[in-house]
Specification:
The protein has 6 helices and no strands. By secondary structure, it is mainly alpha-helical. It has one domain: Tetratricopeptide repeat domain (Serine Threonine Protein Phosphatase 5, Tetratricopeptide repeat, Alpha Horseshoe), CATH 1.25.40.10.
Length: 134
């Protein structure tokens, strides 16, 4: 009986250890991702768009499911007048997080630059609808 209890306690301890290690790794990855995004913001403020693009692409390569990274990349592409690339990244971000309001604002700007008034109006309406629901 004591031996079974000891084995049970050891197994439970092992499960807790594995869970803790998994959580630690996850949090480290999240912190690293957030620091990338912060560095990107600093690059953009300094007008270092190419460096920001490189860092975002590196981040997306490591984890392609970060909607904010795709959105930021789309915004930087817009600043560089790379409008098709901008829309592609913004649409990717939108499929991941359709309630990320900044995407609609940026899509509106890009569509306006491209002279696509109907699409710009739809993006603006989506933005206003989401803003009203906050």
């Amino acid at each position: 009986m004591k031996q079974k209890m000891l084995i049970l306690i050891l197994c439970a301890s092992f499960v807790v250890l594995l869970t803790s290690v998994g959580l630690y790794v996850y949090l480290k990855r999240q912190h690293k991702t957030l620091s990338y995004i912060q560095t990107v913001g600093e690059y953009v403020q300094q007008g270092k768009y190419d460096e920001a693009i490189h860092l975002l692409k590196e981040t997306i390569h490591k984890n392609p499911r970060i909607a904010e990274a795709h959105a930021a990349l789309g915004m930087i592409y817009n600043k560089k007048d790379m409008l098709d690339e901008s829309l592609q990244e913004l649409k990717t971000a939108l499929t991941m997080k359709p309630d990320l309001i900044s995407i609609y604002q940026e899509m509106y700007k890009v569509y306006k630059k491209k002279g696509m008034e109907e699409e710009a109006q739809k993006a603006l309406e989506s933005y206003e609808k989401l803003k009203g629901s906050e």
